Amino acid sequence: MTAARRTQSNFALQLAIEQADTFNRPLLVLEAVRCGYQWASARFHKFLMDGMEDNAASFAAASITYYPYIEPKAQHGCGLLDALARQACVVITDEFPSFFLPRMVRAAATQVPCSLLAVDGNGILPLALAPKVFTTAFSFRRHVHKSILGHLDTLPETNPLAFATPRLAAEIPPAILKRWPTAPFIHLQEGAATLLRKLPIDQAVLPTTQRGGARRALELWQLFLGERLEAYPDHRNQPHREGTSRLSPYLHFGHISSHTMVGDLLAREEWTPAQVAPKPTGSRAGWWGLSPAVEAYLDQLITWREVGYTFCHKNPDTYGRFESLPNWALETLSLHQHDPRPDIYQLDAFESAQTHDPIWNAAQRQLVAEGTIHNYLRMLWGKKILHWSETPQQALSIMTHLNNKYALDGRNPNSTSGIFWTLGRFDRAWGPERPIFGKVRYMSSESAARKLNLKPYLARWSQSQLPLVLGS
Known about the structure:
mainly alpha, Rossmann fold, Serine Threonine Protein Phosphatase 5, Tetratricopeptide repeat, DNA Cyclobutane Dipyrimidine Photolyase, subunit A, domain 3, 3 domains, two-stranded parallel ribbon, 20 helices, 4 strands
């Protein structure tokens, strides 16, 4: 388990169970957490460890051997997969199109002595079937309308563990367990906290109060379906409302599947393919034949999420580079690169929320404390970093660092899309042409203050109840 860290609606786990039956062999599930990757912190490790506890309980109930491993120091886990694979018929893992995971899977494929299968469970549309790089949400949405019906009939089994044939547990050789001990925290919260404090990761980026794991993800999803979905179109952009699902971190860490969410939404409305419009429209609403709230949420969950995954898959070496922006954005940002800036801040001022703008400072404080920013203000947060940085390239570097260091859903294709959207990706040229921004869409704190009820948000985050603790 590397990207789909859950036991429900998991194509890779489902295939692993089928292969165990085919070969009549026990199934071993390895879930490992590295500590040497960039931005590794107590925040992300704790979220992952919460999920490992949930998985341990689920696999124990199904009598499947589960091997949770947490690196005590960088590179300590090297060789573990190869050692396990020497006794394996096949190794199955997750395909994921960004951060260090693609390199890790490619390296593993050259090292293990058996077949390694990487399974794409990222979204409804398979990454490999994307015909091209999509440059706008509209063009990708048309692709969704043309293609998605054929994939809604092949959603993963909700509970693949129910199909596992009872058999003897997989035996892990003692020499392997001695060199790579299992995580000692399972079913022992105190042990988890002790282990976390000892790890050579950024301990100053503190865990949030938000618990990770599949169990909490499903609780939040049911809460959203039952109490918040109907008001989603009206409340999602209002910071003083609890109008969103708050599931982005759980989708990123694989604690919940978009297949589960899409399946539940369609079942809730008793939807059938006969309800869709006769032709692909590319429109944000109306094609599905569903209620406005469900169509609005599906557009976020499928169109905006999967266009980012597809972009990373099609541009594995360049998706995070400034040069990957559309030509019109590169041209207009270059033309205005030397425009005078009204204010210029460096990374340390941004990170410590020391700008002149109380709305921006509040958003940054929320990011540091909670690992998230309200959706609308996250867009404004990025636009103002562009406005106040010496160059657009520096703005991208600052946004990437702050997002990936503090955001629970950082290092994900979807949050990468959000960062690059502020610079023009998946958008179009806008007028009037402005200083610094050129034809890139402009947003201002003044406009946000007029549109949104920000008083409760500012009351909470301008002088945060939590101290602004910065990572090393």
